[in-house]
Amino acid sequence: MLRRLHGLPGVVLALGLTVVAVTGAVLSLQPALDRATVPTVPSGTNVADLAAQVAARHPGIAAIRQRPDGGITVAFDDGDARGVERVDPATGAGLGPYQVSEATRVITNLHRSFLAGDAGRAVAGIGALAMLALSLSGTALLARRLGGAGALLRPIRGTPAQRWHGELGRLAGAGLVLSSFTGLWMSAGTFGLIPEAQGITRVVTASSGAPAPVGTLAALRSVPLTDLRELRFPDPSDPTDIFTLRTAAGETQVDAGTGAALAFAPATTLERINDLVRTLHTGRGAWLLGLLLGLASAAVPVLGATGIILWVRRRAARPRVAANAPAHGADTVILVGSEGNSTWGFAGTLHAALTAAGHRVHIAAMNDVGTAHLAADRLLVLTATYGEGDAPASAKSFLSRLARLEGRPPVAVLGFGDRNFPHFCRFAQEVADALEAKGCPRLLPMKRVDRRSSQEFAQWGRDLGAVLGHDLTLSHVAEPPKSVPLTLAGRELYGEAVGTPVAILRFEAPLDPRTGAPGRLPSFAAGDLVGILPPGDAMPRFYSLASSTRDGMLEICVRLREGGLCSTFLHALAPGGTVNAFIRENPAFRPTAGRAPLILIGAGAGIGPLAGFVRANAEGRPMHLYWGGRSAASDFLYEHELAQHLAERRLTSLATAFSRDAEGGAYVQDRIAADAPRLRELLKQGAQILVCGGRDMAEAVTRAFEPVVRPLGLDLATLKSCGRYVEDVY
Ligand SMILES: Cc1cc2nc3c(=O)[nH]c(=O)nc-3n(C[C@H](O)[C@H](O)[C@H](O)COP(=O)(O)O)c2cc1C
């Protein structure tokens, strides 16, 4: 529901809202500019003094106004000359005609009405309502993604578009809510939906005597000029007419002859609210707020563009399920829990494979679970996990609905998640537990798929096929990638002598056949993944990148695995040979922004992305590398490059552990335990820990870190949840 409220309406309205927001941002500069140019009203002067000074120059003076920016203007009709003039509040001297520039007028009209009169004004009002709804629903969506309102300030993970949208959204959110709410209020006022202030009715008790000089009128002398909003002069042809003085406190009628206050009407609550709303919307009289609101508005075009990218990607990822069998009569029901839609892609592949195997398969969102679904022969649940181990959007109401339904079909639950999060596939586990508690027989034990691994999904398919009694080949690549050819430019081989051959492979884009110039590499950063398609296999294998596009080559470390199709292919590849590859961003495994120290930990080929982070550290951020291999003589990957980085201060310290060296015989976790005091110091400075390598090593490192962080009152779950302990584990 929230997503529906936010997604499509946002895309449709993006252009119109961008016009309103950008013009609003430009207008927001005005109060600050005015503040610099408009002469300030001196304290100690009163309204009568200024009125006298100006009346001496303009016999036909009609009104003196103090504008919200503090500037004083005078409206006059002297017979031979008429107009509105700016005046110096200290002397009453004229400062030239008051004019709104043509550009300001056009921008204001664009902002208020798209230059289209009342119809445009109504559209702008609806735009304000839409902006309010988008800001509130966006904040709620972000809170849901991050694990609740209390988690709104947590680091945002995801693709660059997701991060920009989320970061800007939370920075600008409060300002946009304020601007759109006040804009909506003012729009409603324009259309008479909010009653306007009713000035007091004219009293008839004026003395009707000869008018006294305005500078002598007591009721005007008693009001400081700083308080003035407007002073309307009496009509000179009407001896009974009076002065009308408006201040923030209300409206006073002043006898032109005696200077006595005849009547006072205090400002109503509604008037005060209207004043406040106008100040909050325009920033007039509150220039700093105006600038902040302007900055928030300036974020709208970027929010619109990234929002459209996210919406298009989400739609593109949604599977077009061909031949979805009706729920009634389906033998197999697939229920999908997804937020970003990638799980729908896996479910679509499963649906197609089961349908091809002769099953009548119905697929639906988990939120739509109903009696018919539980009447099927089997139920397959594929679900992602979000926030703090919570349900994704399409599964929010699944558990509560399930509790109210009858039926206990055999079930298999497949969780999609990311090991870098502290609650890996926790929602899938909750679903499996709830189904078991309901009495649904288990078709397969619950399984977790890490970072959309095609291999783990295919393995689950084989297990499911075995239970169903037929082959089930699930070959699904999360987002069908467009691969590009890459040419092997160089290779270095390590570790053969100790039984762990690891190759550092450097690829370049092939030469452009037309120009002979080097081709362009795709865009990637160290820590991202490259998917490589081994010849004759549609299933990509992923390797962590040790370089970024800026390095001019794509570098990976590949350990030769016994029987491994892709690693065997890559180790046999000769310089000049090509591979088909594509990039998968891995935003969860990146150094945080800023200058806090980084503790990089890896073993074997896991050094790849860590070496990439060090190489990119031209600004000398503190980086401490712990790395484990087998033998300094045989598999010390990047030995010379790391020595160079130490000399250049790209790397602050290096601790190695070689398990097979005669005098060493240590593992990387031993170095961590030995370095506990120093590591604690670094953590106190806000250090982030990045771990890359095999699962066993990562688990040993986790165990070694627990006693390091405990005396600081920290634990790894907390560090992980705020992105200060991240892993890239395989
Ligand atoms: C903001 C955010 C929070 C996440 N939280 C978790 C989590 O707590 N546990 C987990 O295992 N995976 C978590 N993930 C990973 C997703 O579950 C995983 O990427 C999944 O494949 C996404 O599937 P979907 O595209 O169908 O939503 C999170 C991802 C994001 C972007």
UniProtKB/TrEMBL annotation:
<keyword id="KW-0472">Membrane</keyword>
<dbReference type="GO" id="GO:0010181">
    <property type="term" value="F:FMN binding"/>
</dbReference>
<dbReference type="Pfam" id="PF00175">
    <property type="entry name" value="NAD_binding_1"/>
</dbReference>
<protein>
    <submittedName>
        <fullName>PepSY domain-containing protein</fullName>
    </submittedName>
</protein>
<feature type="transmembrane region" description="Helical">
    <location>
        <begin position="12"/>
        <end position="33"/>
    </location>
</feature>
<dbReference type="Pfam" id="PF03929">
    <property type="entry name" value="PepSY_TM"/>
</dbReference>
<keyword id="KW-0812">Transmembrane</keyword>
<dbReference type="InterPro" id="IPR039261">
    <property type="entry name" value="FNR_nucleotide-bd"/>
</dbReference>
<dbReference type="InterPro" id="IPR008254">
    <property type="entry name" value="Flavodoxin/NO_synth"/>
</dbReference>
<dbReference type="InterPro" id="IPR029039">
    <property type="entry name" value="Flavoprotein-like_sf"/>
</dbReference>
<dbReference type="Pfam" id="PF00258">
    <property type="entry name" value="Flavodoxin_1"/>
</dbReference>
<keyword id="KW-0285">Flavoprotein</keyword>
<feature type="transmembrane region" description="Helical">
    <location>
        <begin position="122"/>
        <end position="147"/>
    </location>
</feature>
<dbReference type="InterPro" id="IPR017938">
    <property type="entry name" value="Riboflavin_synthase-like_b-brl"/>
</dbReference>
<dbReference type="InterPro" id="IPR005625">
    <property type="entry name" value="PepSY-ass_TM"/>
</dbReference>
<feature type="domain" description="FAD-binding FR-type">
    <location>
        <begin position="481"/>
        <end position="592"/>
    </location>
</feature>
<dbReference type="GO" id="GO:0004783">
    <property type="term" value="F:sulfite reductase (NADPH) activity"/>
</dbReference>
<dbReference type="InterPro" id="IPR017927">
    <property type="entry name" value="FAD-bd_FR_type"/>
</dbReference>
<dbReference type="InterPro" id="IPR001709">
    <property type="entry name" value="Flavoprot_Pyr_Nucl_cyt_Rdtase"/>
</dbReference>
<keyword id="KW-0288">FMN</keyword>
<feature type="domain" description="Flavodoxin-like">
    <location>
        <begin position="332"/>
        <end position="465"/>
    </location>
</feature>
<feature type="transmembrane region" description="Helical">
    <location>
        <begin position="286"/>
        <end position="312"/>
    </location>
</feature>
<dbReference type="GO" id="GO:0005829">
    <property type="term" value="C:cytosol"/>
</dbReference>
<dbReference type="GO" id="GO:0050660">
    <property type="term" value="F:flavin adenine dinucleotide binding"/>
</dbReference>
<keyword id="KW-1133">Transmembrane helix</keyword>
<dbReference type="InterPro" id="IPR001433">
    <property type="entry name" value="OxRdtase_FAD/NAD-bd"/>
</dbReference>
